[in-house]
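Hi L.,

You mentioned the student needs an example of a multi-chain input paired with its predicted structure. This one should do, with 435 residues in total across all chains.
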Amino acid sequence: MAVAEQAAAGLTAAAASHRGRAFGLDVRSTFDIPALSGGAGSSARLTVCHEQDAVDLERDWPRTGVEHPVDLRFPDGRLFMSIDRHPERGYRIWAPRHGRHVVSPDGREIRSALPRRSALGWQRLFFAQTLPLAAALQGLEVLHASAVGIGGRAVAFTAASGTGKSSLAAHLVAAGATFLTDDVLALEPGPDGALAHPGPARAGVSAHELRSMTAVGRDRLGRRVGSTDKPHFEPSQASSALPLAILFRLSRSSRFARLSLREQLPPEPKTVLGSSFLTYLRTRQRLLNQLAICERVTGSARLYDLEIPASVSAREAASFVLEHAKKVLGA
Amino acid sequence: MTRKLPADFSIPTAHVSIPAHVVYREFAAETVILNLETGRYHGLNATGGGMLELLDRCDSVAEALTAFAGRYGKEPVEVEEDLRAFCTRLHERGLIDVTLNGSR
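Structure written out for the whole complex:
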């Protein structure tokens, strides 16, 4: 805590006025970060965010000794997102028109150059990459997963991108579950297993999925905060971490004839290890954290493979999952 | 760098140790070996996991061989080749160190 306190002390009282929580981090910031929960901060993990001019941020970033673990591009060759790493300076995350961020090697400080055009745009990069990286560097394990709360326990969904884990979570929230996180799930060891931390209160839901919800269900998604490729909402969410009770590994295919659920008996470690997010982050400590969380999850949660036929809607799948989860949890 | 071990290495003179950069955990479904240098995970089934646990715990490969054979009600000579092949594969992947006659 000493280092974090020192970092926080570097901010003026006015500059530190923005506070919130997400991914198990207490976040203090010189700029407003919407969608962070306002829950009481008792975490030992503090991350301080400073806004910085893009020119200054680039000038400060070293020119030598930099590795380039991530370089994602559009089909026409334009840069989609890059992540660079320097052993002493940390990680620079950059997505054109979505901002750039430098995360310190210990995850306790983020310096951000924010684009002026779209608040939602920089928030997406910040919540999808920057803050999860800070969480992982501070010892939390992050999975590529959505999650909801049912009966006070976390139910998570992992799958390849595009399978529908966010849509499934949105439909569960519309059906009365508590929103936990949309795309990245931060876990830490808890007294009896793994604790699942709320992410930011942001849920992207496609227009198609919205149309299939009832008016009450849409209301449960909260305030609509804008649109990118899909509308984004600000659902009310769990105020603290929940014990992870169920992890579903989803797969969707036209080969599947019907919704099918198979419990992994015994739970398969690769379900957890294979869901790891930020795969470029392979420090010794991160790898050991992965293994430790894998032990916790497979030792305490129930793991299922859920096969969803292509013809089955996310709403139908959510109904199926909710019924099963309630039965398992006695909720 | 490929680490080669003679395919017919002598079990009575062999010792196995787990390198500092390797950790493993036994799960109900499998044993997971993590190589911290490469960041790669390796999975072993129950039989392989049992072999690794014995190699790690016993003072020599010969002792591990006897214990492993005993678990399955076999004579050591019946499972010797399996254990030798197992050691060779893990050694090549840098997941164990096999020392022969005191030299690695």
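You could point out the following to them. Strands of chain B lie at 14-17, 22-26, 31-35, 40-44, 97-100. Chain B touches chain A at residues 23, 25, 27-30, 32, 34, 36, 39, 41, 43 (CB under 8 Å).

Best wishes,
N.
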